[in-house]
Amino acid sequence: MADAKRTNRLILHKTVVMVGMMGAGKTAVGRALANRLAVPFRDSDHEIEQAANMTIAEIFERDGEPFFRRKESQVIDRLLDGTPCVLSTGGGAFMSADNRQGISQKGVSVWLDADLEVLWNRVRHKDTRPLLRSADPKGTLAALYEKRVPLYRLADITVTSRADRTLDEMARLVCDTLLETRPDVLEALE
Ligand SMILES: Nc1ncnc2c1ncn2[C@@H]1O[C@H](COP(=O)(O)OP(=O)(O)O)[C@@H](O)[C@H]1O
Ligand SMILES: O=C(O)C1=C[C@@H](OP(=O)(O)O)[C@@H](O)[C@H](O)C1
Ligand SMILES: [Mg+2]
């Protein structure tokens, strides 16, 4: 596997869509994975922020969450129709049945599965996530976790994100799992 990376002979046939809770590492691992696969990296939150010239928090505040969700679905649809890339979504994107359908038809979903403590430790120091701007952010995160995990389980591939795994280790694990289980998505040329 390491050789395949070194000789740059990995061919990505379908877009890899990172899903999971806030703090799971979708953005950071997605970027490392794109680098490893030598394909473009896209992040739906970043695309929305750029198009609106506003932060996610400002969009939530001014236009509301339903507006944000519509933009999110549009961005995901558009990027799934482009050349294969790594696409990191926001934590709520996989809750929509329409988004899940588009992702499974045109790409492959990878759930970064982290437990609540790991997630909390990764999001607690930042106030950029509007849904966690509550009186009890840890309780809010826990409630979202309970509600969302059954849907994340529907993802095509699951990779466990433990506290002791680095970003590069995570990217390698996702890459190796795709190579082993999804030759229709990722191919290593001899
Ligand atoms: N496997 C990991 N090892 C170390 N730090 C990580 C790991 N995964 C995520 N992080 C860190 O946790 C924070 C949240 O990650 P991020 O990629 O923004 O998550 P998400 O996009 O899923 O909300 C970032 O500071 C990121 O660098
Ligand atoms: O879980 C969610 O509903 C959200 C997660 C965020 O992205 P990350 O999961 O990348 O933090 C961002 O899309 C928005 O704040 C809403
Ligand atoms: Mg992110």
From TrEMBL:
Binds 1 Mg(2+) ion per subunit. ATP binds at G23, A24, G25, K26, T27, A28, R129, R165. SUPFAM superfamilies: P-loop containing nucleoside triphosphate hydrolases. This is Shikimate kinase. NCBIfam families: PRK13946.1. GO terms for molecular function: shikimate kinase activity. It comes from Tropicibacter oceani. It is an enzyme of class 2 (transferase). Catalyzes the specific phosphorylation of the 3-hydroxyl group of shikimic acid using ATP as a cosubstrate. Monomer. The lineage of its organism: Bacteria, Pseudomonadati, Pseudomonadota, Alphaproteobacteria, Rhodobacterales. Keywords: Amino-acid biosynthesis, Aromatic amino acid biosynthesis, ATP-binding, Cytoplasm, Kinase, Magnesium, Metal-binding, Nucleotide-binding, Transferase. Substrate binds at D45, R69, G91, R148. HAMAP family: Shikimate_kinase. The keyword Repeat does not apply. PANTHER family: SHIKIMATE KINASE, SHIKIMATE KINASE 1, CHLOROPLASTIC. Its EC number is 2.7.1.71. Its cofactor is Mg(2+). It comes from the Bacteria.
